[in-house]
Amino acid sequence: QVQLVESGGGLVQAGGSLRLSCAASGRTFVMYAMAWFRQAPGKERDFVAAINWGVGSTRYADSVKGRFTISRDVAKNTVYLLMNSLKPEDTAVYYCAAAKTLRDSSLESQYDYWGQGTQVTVSS
To answer: What is the DSSP string of 44-113?
Structure first.
């Protein structure tokens, strides 16, 4: 089995920064892409950012573009999300996801593995 474990969440004031990490472990698989999604209370789980594992190309939701940066460490099977200039509306549980293959990296249904999530709370 494959496990994804997120870490790095916490409480931060508006304008501050956090870096989330997600490490994949367990049965080896061909990684195509990894991504971050988030879900605020009472809302749907939304796409945040994705990265192609081989090429390193990235994609961001409009709401975080210019503030968040997704990156990867292939040797460590780890994806990161650096969140700068955080806003209260960024408050959510952030989930890591991994795909063996996909066509649209913004869709939840494209991903094969999910982490348990890590809470990010941004105070005003």
So the answer is: -EEEEEEEETTT--EEE-TTTTTTEEEEEEGGGTEEEEEE-S--GGG-EEEEEEEESS-S-TT-GGG-SE
